[in-house]
Amino acid sequence: MMICKTNEQVEMMRQSALLVSKTLSEVAKTLKPGITTISIDKMIGTFINDHKAVPSFLNYKGYPFNSCISVNDVVVHGFPGKNELEEGDIVSIDIGVILNEWHGDHAYTFAMGDPGNAAKQLIRVTKESLYKGIEKAIVGNYVGDIAYAIQEHTEKKHGYGVVRELVGHGLGKNLHEDPQVPNYGKRGSGKKLKDGLVLAIEPMINLGKKDVYTEDDGWTVRTKDGKPSVHFEHDVCVRKNKADILSDYMPIEAAEKANPNLYSE
Ligand code: MF3
Ligand code: CO
User: Fold this and answer.
1) For the whole model, what pTM was predicted?
2) What's the gap in Å between 88 CA and the centre of ligand 2?
């Protein structure tokens, strides 16, 4: 069942999405080689709590951390730990909050210093594909139109691997609502998009082949070929002529630019 939100509810969800954006921009300020991913996760938990919200991933289906921190060949759902970030790493940070009962859930991929040309292009193209998908998130279109736009730009145009096992989703009072939003598919297929539907659109794109596996911890998803993977996620509200992006990359990109330890376009 797809749950469309009232304008008032969308504004509540914008606050949730923007708290995630704010948290990601705080993270962007502190990233440097040598920092452990568990210390980033702790900071994320504290920042969210300080803003009258709770980290939604913690204990979700038993997930044991505040955030997912996925480095290099880890596609998504990476466990924070004692591992230190290094020059050249690409790091996806995925954060969820519940603020006033409403979920925000979005992600950004950072690069530590110079990750090399192939990874830089992967980051650029994956982010572009997210916006190409968002362009299709308008009333009267289909979920497949979003999916096709992302696959077209990443797989068909650049030869990257589009992960099949994991998808975007509806968002609201639950972290995962209908519909599922794959990053591959046919134009005009799937559910028809309605006004007020809020979607988490999240391309997960591999430099190499599309195949992934889950580690024995039950969560960590890695590429089979060991090549890097990139993940970007926005929360968007379906509207008539133009989707309304509830989350905001501006403060994150500003912090990224200002941090000399990070690569920025
Ligand atoms: N953004 C991801 C998703 O939408 C992360 C959630 S997994 C969790 O599915 F277990 F950590 F919550
Ligand atoms: Co999500």
Assistant:
1) 0.98
2) 25
